[in-house]
Amino acid sequence: MSSIHPDQYVSDRLAGRGAAAAGYAPPDPGDGSLIEDPAVRAPLVLNNRSFGEVTEIICGYAEKAPGKWWMPLFAIAGLAAATGTLMIAYLIITGVGVWGLTNQVDWAWDITNFVFWIGIGHAGTLISAILCLFKQKWRTAVNRSAEAMTIFAVICAGMFPAIHVGRIWFIWMVFPLPNSNSIWPNFRSPLLWDVFAVSTYFTVSLLFWFMGLIPDMASLRDRAHKRMLASKRRAEKPRLGDVIRAYVFGMLSMGWRFSSRHWHRYEVAYLILAGLSTPLVLSVHSIVSFDFATSVLPGWHTTIFPPYFVAGAIFGGFAMVLLLLIPAREVFPNFRDFLTLRHIENMAKILLVTGMMVGFAYSMEFFIAWYSGNEYELSVFLNNRANPAKAPYWWAYWTMISCNVISPQVFWFRKLRTNPLVVWIVALAVTIGMWFERFVIIVTSLHRAFLPAEWHMFHPTPVDVLTFVGSCGIFLTLFLLFVRFLPVFAMAEIKAVLPQAHRHDHDDDHHDDHHGEAH
Amino acid sequence: MPGLFPKWTNALPTVTAAMAMGGAVTAVAGVWYYFTPKYWEAGYMPQQPGSGFNHQIHAGKLGIDCRYCHTKVEQSPEANVPNVATCMGCHTENRLSTEFVKDEKVQFIRDAYATDESIEWRRVHKLPDYVRNFPHHVHIHAGVSCYSCHGQIMGMPEVFQAEPLSMGWCLDCHRDPGKHLVEPDQVTRLREVEQELTARRHHEGTMDVDALVEALRTAPPETCGACHH
Q1: Which domain holds residue A440?
Q2: CB–CB of B168 and A179 under 8 A?
Q3: How far apart are the C-alpha atoms of A78 and A240, rounded to whole Å?
Q4: CA–CA–CA angle A70, A71, A76 (5° rounding)
Q5: Strand partners, B181
Q6: Does A246 touch chain B (CB under 8 A)?
Q7: B35: nearest CA in chain A?
């Protein structure tokens, strides 16, 4: 390891002077952060882990009891989830009047939460689909947990449109089922497209996640089975946890035996699912944006919505990945070997890029409102959102701008984007900002529509608040169960990016591209 | 290492998949067949008070026109049930020969008349309360026969619901009224209407369907507000 600054090293090497010219010794910062020399790649796994160590560490998270932090956190999350469930039961029994909705603001926290959660899922799909097709190997550190977040977020998201219909026992009517009323859902309505988009998204994401889990669950099965047999040889009763693990993972791993043929089919299926998911990254949130864009309401009726929503979804999704995985680095032993500073830095850069994309969209909305000459639209942006003197919701708008546009700008500085605490704080700000973005879009456009006589403020009730808190609780409960019982990293994929998997490693510039040649 | 699962479990995925498919098909078929007004409502035949009212005798055998009792059907949305006085028009004591009428069978009418009480006839054809009153007069004048919704009343000793009265069933006619329209002055002649409509199904009808639809002038509405509040 060299103390020379990476930039210095590169310029030395290019100029043919200093230590760099003599021997090829890339200055490895040791924490996995990116190396400036484009000829050298930062390691994806630190501390020279062997295949066996990778299995031991990752299976260990799912097999051994986690630290003391888990149970209190799980209790809090579970309590929040239970409260949310009670609120939903109360809503169903009483009616949607328990929310603060009025004739004027008939969509508020419910749809805000829906769009918020559905956006959170997009990082997982982007990582597992698009980054897979572009062969971005750093995705192996986050794909499993990000995909899990996708599933959990879509569960939270799907809840809100279902309960906001009021008479939930008629929810089957959203599906085009033949019925004795001879009526169909309105196929020209984006609300129906939403049903298809979200259910397709959930199905494909679940399949993708589950298929990726199969080999890893087979590892957990075999390890539990081995421990069972060892206890039997010692004439002891096997531990109940091992028996449950062996049988449950045995069923879920669907007879996986690690044969070459299994792997071959696995890789083909993985590629097919990646291909199927790729359009979903773009389509799902585009269609969610149509819920607004196809209406005639100023503030909603905007052609920029689909790309703006997709960028915002990826932005919010990566913020959530960072929000949950940076603390995981602290509490799980050896977690940092797999989720290195390089990964955090990469995701911080994505936050910076997508943050500027949404910032561009925010400014473009103003430009178009002015350029179109539509005074109602301009009024929405100036008088309902941005101007503190006139807009009652100015604080929501400026919270959104500070969290989403200003806060990620700190990532221009390498020191700050490689500081996990700073990245975590920005991720938290972005998560808050993205919730406010949806609130701003929905409520500030609705609360002052065309007729001033109908103008009303929206006041959330405790049921509104607790239902949102409940959805966070459900998300966190599911995520805590996931890190406790399932492998949080895709072990097989991590092993494939270890240097040992490629025999001609460090001296070869293109070692990532030609595996198989050396065998 | 001995296997975790016994060998027979290899069949489980196939069996589970087959059972899931079978279950899904059964569920869909079951809902399709049973969860319909066609199954639950058609054939509804409530017990009427007294000895009931035999439509087969009155309307069929004796040929009393529907409008003799359901007097307001041409002017009102409601095809009213007659009051006791209408019954008493014929069934006053010793008015009809005992050859036709057994006194004990109509005694409940005379009792009601004597005590000035209504007979609580039970409604057979019901619509959900989110549907407006079915406008009988509009349909009658448009040329929809009683037969099209109530079936062959002239052959029913006790009236039952002959048709499902589901929304889809209403819409079938509203979307293609030609199958059911007759000349408006023929609507209560249920036997002739039955013959005509049956023949029409085999393209042997004698009425000019196009002229009937043409005479209807406006197409039957399909908007929600046409039937719902």
Answers
A1: 58-497
A2: yes
A3: 24
A4: 100
A5: B144
A6: yes
A7: A180
Encoded tokens for A341: 């500073």
Question: Do the Cβ atoms of A59 and A220 come closer than 8 Å?
Answer: yes
Cβ atoms of residues A258 and A219 within 8 Å:
no
Instruction: Determine contact, residues B228/B130, Cβ cutoff 8 Å.
Output: yes
**Residue A42, in any domain of the structure:** no
For chains A and B, what is the number of CB pairs under 8 angstroms? Answer: 32
Q: What is the pLDDT of residues B150-202, one digit of tens each?
A: 999 999 999 999 999 999 999 999 988 888 999 989 999 999 999 999 999 88
Question: How far is the alpha carbon of A383 from chain B, nearest alpha carbon, in Å?
Answer: 38
Q: Check if B174 contacts A (Cβ < 8 Å).
A: no
Of A178, A180, A250, the CB nearest to B4: A250
* Nearest beta carbon to residue B167 from set A181, A226, A254: A181
Partners of B228 in beta bridges: B131
Q: What is the per-residue pLDDT across A441-500, written as a single tens digit (0 to 9) for each?
A: 999 999 998 888 989 899 999 999 999 999 999 999 999 999 999 999 999 999 998 888
Tally Cβ neighbours within 10 Å of residue A467.
27
- Here the tokens at position A15 are 């100029």
C-alpha distance from B219 to closest chain A C-alpha (Å): 18
Is residue A6 one of the residues assigned to a domain? no
Which of B1, B4, B34, B167 to probe the A interface (max A CBs under 10 A)?
B4
Residues of chain A contacting residue B4, judged by C-beta atoms under 8 Å apart: 221, 225, 246-247, 250
**Which of B 34-73 lie inside 8 A of A, CB atoms?**
35-38
Q: Which of A180, A225, A255 sits opposite B168 (nearest CB)?
A: A180
pTM of the predicted structure, to 2 decimals: 0.86
Instruction: Please give the radius of gyration of chain A, using alpha carbons only, rounded to the nearest integer.
Output: 25
B38 → closest Cβ in A180, A181, A221: A180
With b meaning 16 or more CB within 10 Å and e meaning fewer, what string describes A360-396?
A: bbbeebeebbeeeeeeebbbbbebbbbeeeebbbbeb
A78-A79-A81 Cα angle (round to 5): 60
Residue A519 lies in a domain: no
Contact of A212 with A306, CB cutoff 8 Å: no
Q: How many domains does chain A have?
A: 1
